[in-house]
């Protein structure tokens, strides 16, 4: 989401495209809408993902199995935790990507209010 937004795509349009193509997944359908919110109600936290992914990465290391995607996800979750987002919904990991890319994906409160006003 951050990469596509940085490349000039509207985040909502990008989500619509990916959701209706080969990139569609249950996780995307479940997490992406919350990624767009400024403060979603936590359903699972960044701290839980840090714990679980840490166990996966350690188990893989112990058995000699490479898990590069899990390791990368773990590092991004650790980054989000380091930003003070540990108790936030796990979708808040988008904020770590926003920090790295310098590109905002989440809506501001003003944008949310403007959308609500336009729809009423």
Helix percent reads 55-70%
Count the beta strands.
Answer: 0
Would you tell me the overall average pLDDT? 90
Please state the CA-atom Rg, rounded to the nearest Å: 16 Å
Largest sheet: none
Count of the domains: 1
Low-confidence stretches: none
Description:
The protein has helices at 2-6, 11-19, 26-35, 46-63, 68-85, 94-101, 109-119. It is mainly alpha-helical and 120 residues long. It has a single domain, classed as N-(1-d-carboxylethyl)-l-norvaline Dehydrogenase, domain 2 (Orthogonal Bundle). Helix 4 (46-63) runs antiparallel to helix 5 and helix 5 packs across helix 6. The longest helix is centred in the middle third of the chain and has 18 residues, at 46-63. It is globular. Residues 1-97 form the 3-hydroxyisobutyrate dehydrogenase-like NAD-binding domain. Keywords: Oxidoreductase. This is 3-hydroxyisobutyrate dehydrogenase. Its EC number is 1.1.1.31.
Task: List the defining traits of the structure above.
mainly alpha, 66% helix, 120 residues, N-(1-d-carboxylethyl)-l-norvaline Dehydrogenase, domain 2, 7 helices, 6PGD_dom2, NAD binding, oxidoreductase
List the helices and strands and how they pair.
Blueprint: H1 2-6, H2 11-19, H3 26-35, H4 46-63, H5 68-85, H6 94-101, H7 109-119
In short:
The chain has 120 residues and is mainly alpha-helical. The protein has 7 helices and no strands.
């Amino acid at each position: 989401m951050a990469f596509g937004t940085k490349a000039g795509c509207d985040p909502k349009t990008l989500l619509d495209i990916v959701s209706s193509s080969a990139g569609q997944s249950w996780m995307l359908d479940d997490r992406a809408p919350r990624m767009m919110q400024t403060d979603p109600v936590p359903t699972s936290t960044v701290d839980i993902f840090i714990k679980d992914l840490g166990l996966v990465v350690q188990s893989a290391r112990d058995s000699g199995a490479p898990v590069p995607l899990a390791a990368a996800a773990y590092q991004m979750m650790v980054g989000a935790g380091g930003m003070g987002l540990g108790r936030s919904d796990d979708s808040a990991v988008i904020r770590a990507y926003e920090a790295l890319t310098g590109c905002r994906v989440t809506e501001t409160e003003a944008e949310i209010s403007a959308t609500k006003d336009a729809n009423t």
